[in-house]
Design goal:
The protein has about 100 residues and is mainly α. It has 5 helices and no strands. It has one domain. The longest helix has 13 residues.
Length: about 100
């Protein structure tokens, strides 16, 4: 099986098919922004290089890199708070992601 259901293995190379599989992640809480949810799950599961590839597929699919959670926080706002989030944040910024100043960042 390929995609987000496959167990995480450290150091394993991810195929484009597996990376793209995150585009199909469904959400249970219909009040949550689906684009934010997908970005969060990809960030949590992927290494920085795979995440950067995913962002390219995400944008190509017409998805919103500036989607916000219920508190108005974008995924870039969240990742920017993490000590090891620099490469992830850089990939988002290259794709046009912005911090949401209204979220207090």
């Amino acid at each position: 099986m390929s995609g987000p259901d496959k167990p995480k293995v450290i150091g394993e190379e991810w195929s484009d098919e597996r990376v793209k599989g995150f585009l199909a992640i469904d959400i249970y809480d219909k009040a949550e922004n689906p684009d934010y949810h997908v970005l969060l799950k990809a960030y949590q599961a992927m290494r920085a290089g795979d995440f950067e590839r995913f962002i390219g597929f995400f944008v190509e699919a017409g998805r919103d890199v500036n989607a916000a959670n219920s508190e108005g926080e974008t995924i870039l706002d969240l990742i920017s708070q993490h000590r090891k989030g620099g490469d992830y944040a850089q990939a988002l910024e290259k794709a046009g992601a912005k911090r949401n100043s209204a979220a207090g960042n």
